[in-house]
Amino acid sequence: MANPEPTMTSLVVEPKSETQAQTTYFRCISGCPGKHSIYDVIYTCPICGSLLEVHHEREPLQDKTAEQWKQLFDSRVGTTAWPYGSGVWSLREWVIPSLADENVVSMCEGNTNLFWAERLGKQLGVPDLWIKLCGNSHTGSFKDLGMTVLVSVVKQMMAQGSPVKAVACASTGDTSAALAAYAAYAGIPAIIFLPAGKVSTAQLIQPVANGALVLALDTDFDGCMKIVKEVTQDNSIYLANSMNSLRIEGQKTVGIEIVRQFNWQVPDWIIIPVGNLGNISALYKGFKLMMDLGLISKMPRLVAAQAAQANPFYEAFKNNFKEKVSITAQDTLASAIRIGDPVSYAKATKAIAESDGIVEQATEAELAAAAAEADLTGMFTCPHTGVALAVLKKLVARGLIQKSDRTVVISTAHGLKFTDFKVRYHDSNLAGISSKHANPAIQLPADVGAVKAEIEKQLAGKQ
Questions:
Q1: CATH code: domain of residue 296
Q2: Residue 408 counted as domain residue
Q3: Does the pLDDT of residue 248 top 60, yes or no?
Q4: Closest among 113, 167, 109 to 143, alpha carbons compared
């Protein structure tokens, strides 16, 4: 007997309204007048040049009570009803409610593990420590959350007769992987601009394998960004970097997902590694929406963690954000956040200010050690998560994060994308870094006696 079709009796599927497109639109973050369709090719305010944001009018969303929203979203977790099984599209009404089902480009992103780092937390003095494993996603990073939204909107734009023929981004690795995969799934050409020699092999091969046009430029990320902005002045190529606010709409769902995973309770702290600053802007946006609709009553304190080699946001924070700081970012093991001129600066300063947040930095030695320490408790951390964990240690040492505080660290990418970093650390081959937690493989002859002697020696040393 054939298995019956799966049913979800508790699932609530909301009919889409034509007015939804009119209540969700682009607007200027600096307050200039005007509403712009999310299906138009536009990235910045035509009046002042500021970034845009996707705005959801609150009044239509207040037709449901906070409890009704919670019940609706809880009912969709794990469903096979398209597209609500995605961690992003389960929140569809808060993302892009006017999108047609057939244009949603989703690979079941989101719904990632909120890992209780019990052993590491006890070692650091914060037993209520959780790691949001965003790297457990289709392309191995949190960038999937934003790219499902952007590529879905582009697919609908193309279906409606838009001149857009391709999507493009500058990247330090993870953005390119996400764009290439989602574009390939949608059948849309993708163009990738990478800084030559500054991304890991695992990151480079992802867009290559997915059939994107990959251009390795002799510059850094900021140089790639300048070029892609010029190229996308032609409306036939659509810009997919985080200055495009559609990305933020998907990325904001990670904060909502964390709260849902805590049974709609808000953690005290969230620490996230930052480069171009779209991710912390997105976190704040998700929490602000939940506050406005009454699902939560407080904001977590947000911490932006930067590598000391690429720390413009930290330098601006030290001066109370009196002016934006731009630098030439230096080489860092945390290559995905090697950005000296962050695009989402204005949005991120608001996120820090309105969450009573903090910006802190970590040196190369600190991030490498923090990543290795976490791995010894069962994780497999990318260097960017190492930055966030190193910052966590600093804030605990200062007494800012206390033992009773519920703390979440956002792990932005899977450690398997950075195996070269891991190998070099355990081979004690990272320049200027003492690998005190190195655990290289031990070469032995194929002799039982030699093997037993080494095992006895090693086990005795761990006691």
A1: 3.40.50.1100
A2: yes
A3: yes
A4: 109
Report DSSP letters for 281-295, one per residue. Answer: HHHHHHHHHHHHTTS
* Residue listed under structure tokens 């009704």: 68
The sign of the torsion formed by the CA atoms of 342, 347, 351, 354 equals: positive
Q: What's the number of domains the chain is made of?
A: 1
pLDDT digits (tens, 9 = 90+) for 1-59: 333 333 333 444 444 555 565 799 999 999 999 999 999 999 999 999 999 999 999 99
pTM comes to: 0.91
Residues forming a β-bridge with 307: 362
Give Cα separations from 235 to 44, 83, 104, 170, 386 (angstroms). 14, 29, 22, 17, 39
Residue with tokens 């298995």: 3
Per the CB < 8 A criterion, the answer to whether 299 and 329 are in contact is: no
Distance CA 390, CA 368 (A): 9
Instruction: Give the confidence band of 93 by pLDDT, cuts at 50, 70, 90.
Output: very high
Q: Of 336, 338, 181, 167, whose CA–CA distance to 236 is shortest?
A: 167
Shortest CA distance to 163 belongs to which of 172, 154, 150? 154
CA angle, residues 381, 388, 424, in degrees to nearest 5: 40
Is residue 333 included in any domain, yes or no?
A: yes
Range of the domain at 392: 114-140+248-426
- Degrees (nearest 5) of the Cα angle 109, 177, 324? 95
What's the number of CA atoms in the CB half-sphere (13 Å) around residue 237? 16
